[in-house]
Automatic annotation (TrEMBL):
This is Cell division protein FtsQ. It is found in: Cell inner membrane; Membrane. Gene3D superfamilies: Cell division protein FtsQ/DivIB (3.40.50.11690), membrane protein fhac (3.10.20.310). One of its GO terms (cellular component) is cell division site. It comes from Thiohalobacter thiocyanaticus. The gene is ftsQ. Signal peptide: none annotated.
Length: 261
């Protein structure tokens, strides 16, 4: 049996090394070409999918009951759907635009295969006014539509915007408490000094001051049947800020009359 000499093996490996390098370079080149072709194909596919002429939006479904939200506002907020087509439209952007409309409480947008879009919109339901140009929904969220004046019959709440939740809580508490005497709050205000003022549905003004407003309201409710319900003349207001009584301002001319508690 013949045995290869070490020098012969080294020479043969040296002769094969260039061919291996060329094969490696050729393989890498082919891989690069395949990658470029694949990326080009993906890009062309994405470009085709974004083509509004190839994939138009033909149907827009709008779900929701609207009393104040105008269809013109919805059309303006969703114009991109028709311009960019089924795949090209950015659903999140359209949803954000709808949510920014003053009368929109919640909005959801989704694609409906093959050429439709579905809009689910929940309209705001105002339960009270806030200041001069705002409305509050049942969650206490503030929104500011253009037609606030149409809701003059709603209760009016006012106060520092940072204390809005506190004002809303007091309104709910006072409304429930005043049901005992058949009245409800038409307005509640927390002024800059953090003093409370309540106006009832019969026009009576109640001044509760800065402290113990809940206790003072409870005292007013307790004295209402005896002092005000059967009074021969209506009262303009009552001041509950006294430690041992209250003062009544009657609608007829005269000075406030104080009652000891």
């Amino acid at each position: 049996m013949s045995r290869k000499k070490p020098g012969q093996a080294i020479r043969r490996e040296a002769e094969q090394a260039p061919s291996r390098r060329w094969l490696a370079l050729l393989g890498n080149g082919l891989a690069a070409v395949v990658l470029v072709l694949a990326l080009t194909g993906v890009y062309q596919l994405l470009d085709w999918l974004r083509d509004p002429h190839a994939w138009p939006v033909r149907e827009v479904q709008i779900e929701g009951e609207f009393r104040h939200l105008r269809h013109e506002q919805i059309a303006e907020a969703t114009r991109d759907m028709l311009r960019h087509g089924f795949f090209g439209v950015e659903v999140g952007t359209v949803q954000q635009r709808l949510a920014k409309l003053p009368w929109v409480a919640e909005a959801a947008v989704r694609r409906v295969w093959p050429d439709g879009m579905q809009l689910r919109i929940q309209e705001q339901v105002p339960v009270a006014r806030w200041g001069e140009d705002g409305l509050l929904n049942a969650r206490g969220e503030l929104f500011q539509p253009e037609n606030v004046a149409e809701f003059a019959a709603l209760p009016r709440l006012a106060g520092p915007i940072s204390l809005r939740e506190r004002v809303i809580r007091r309104y709910i508490e006072f409304r429930q408490a005043l049901q005992q005497i058949g009245r409800h709050p038409a307005a509640i205000e927390l002024d800059a000094r953090r003093a409370w003022r309540v106006e009832l549905d019969n026009g009576m003004q109640i001044r509760l001051g800065r402290q113990e407003e809940a206790r003072r309201m409870a005292l007013f409710i307790d004295i209402y049947p005896r002092v005000f319900a059967a009074a021969p003349q209506p009262a303009r207001g009552v001041d509950m800020r006294y430690s041992n009584g209250f003062a009544v301002h009657w609608k007829t001319a005269g000075t406030p009359r104080r009652h000891e508690g």
